[in-house]
Amino acid sequence: MIEVRNLVKKYGNHLAVDHLDFRLESGKVYGFLGPNGAGKSTTMNIMTGYLGATEGQVIIDGHDILKEPEAAKKQIGYLPEQPPLYMEMTVREYLQFAAELKRIPGKNREEAVDEVEKLVKVRSVEDRLIRNLSKGYRQRVGLAQAVLGFPDIIILDEPTVGLDPKQIIEIRELIRRLAEKHTVILSSHILAEVREVCDYILIISRGKLVASDTPENLEKMLGESDTVEIETEASPATVGEILKNVPGIAQIVIKETSEGVTRAQIREKKGEDARGRIFDAFAGNRVTLLTLRRLSVSLEDVFMELTQKETVPEAFRRKMQETASEETAGAEPESAQDSARNQERDREGDEIDDSSL
Q: How many helices (H) and strands (E) are present in the chain, helices listed first?
């Protein structure tokens, strides 16, 4: 389990991470979303020990990443946005080196490297220098070092960057397999990918957590009513006449396409499902419906709504307040000593520990 408590990161006067609080349970795939500059990578770097926080705590399976860095980092495999590769090494040499850094016992090291090479499909290039590999294969090698040793928590920052469509599908399947025994945190700009593989989604904007829920619940919260779309060869006037007396409809927008097909988008009243009544109305007037389908709010709609506005929609704000109240109930506040230690580390600079590989 991962707990992030009141996390803050400042670069001079710039507030990159603004008092983040969330908790991630074991055995799920979490999507971590936000526009460029929102603080995603910074948060991931703090969670893995690559960066020090200005304030706050990150607890990995009961271990504070600052106070017990070695115990905490043993639980984590991390693929940063730029894979930490040594270009003059072969793939095999690099993975053996990573296995040594992770302190995988010598008698198990070769077997562990064999297993991840097969898992991410880099066995065929294991004797090639990394600098001679394509971008897609370099990404795979970076993923192999993250998975090496099969830590409990696997954090992947843009894992499919540079991969072709076939490779993307393979990585998605790999993430699903990993989720059977591991907690996976995935950051990606490909929202369809996140929607497909993630059980839970966190969205941050301007360093703040603005939404946290399942993809389905996020989509439901955005709109208070659903929209039904129909297509028919009847004229717009006929469509309007048929729909005007159908109960449960809040708004109708009618368009005529160039092929002589009339398309209407029908917004239902909250809590109503007017599809059956719409079908019956057209059937009763002997007018054929070419299509009748519900237009649901997409994850892209949710993302745009939450990250392009200064204020968070009321439904999301209320949900976040409820979640924060539940998670902080009974939580102990950070001591003055802990806060001072965090701030001192921040002043000393952000150092990268090789053991975090």
A: 13, 14
- Tokens coding 161: 């960057």
Claim: this prediction has a pTM higher than 0.85: no
Cα–Cα distances in angstroms (integers) from residue 123 to residues 92, 115, 120, 140, 174, in the given order: 9, 10, 8, 11, 16
Task: Tell me which residue has tokens 């998605």.
Answer: 172
Residues forming beta bridges with residue 157, ordered by sequence position? 187
The angle at the Cα of 356, spanning 353 to 357, to the nearest 5 degrees, equals: 115
CB 228 within 8 A of CB 268: yes
Joined together, the tokens standing for residue 81 give: 């946005």
- Residue 278 contacts residue 285 (beta carbons within 8 Å): no
* pLDDT greater than 70 at residue 230: yes
* Alpha helices (H) in 161-274, listed in sequence order: 165-178, 191-197, 215-222, 236-243
What 3-state DSSP class applies to 17? strand
| DSSP at 234 | S
- Residues 3-23 have pLDDT tens digits of 999 999 999 999 999 999 999
Using one digit for the tens of pLDDT, what is the confidence trace for 190-227?
888 888 889 999 999 889 998 888 888 887 776 555 78
User: 212 with 202: CB under 8 angstroms?
Assistant: yes
pLDDT per position as a tens digit, 315-326? 556 655 565 555
Distance, in Å, from the CA atom of 143 to the CA atom of 332, rounded to the nearest integer, reads 36
| DSSP element (H, E) containing 253 | strand 249-256
Inter-helix orientation angle 135-147/91-101, to 10°: 30
* CA separation for the pair 125, 122 (Å, rounded): 6
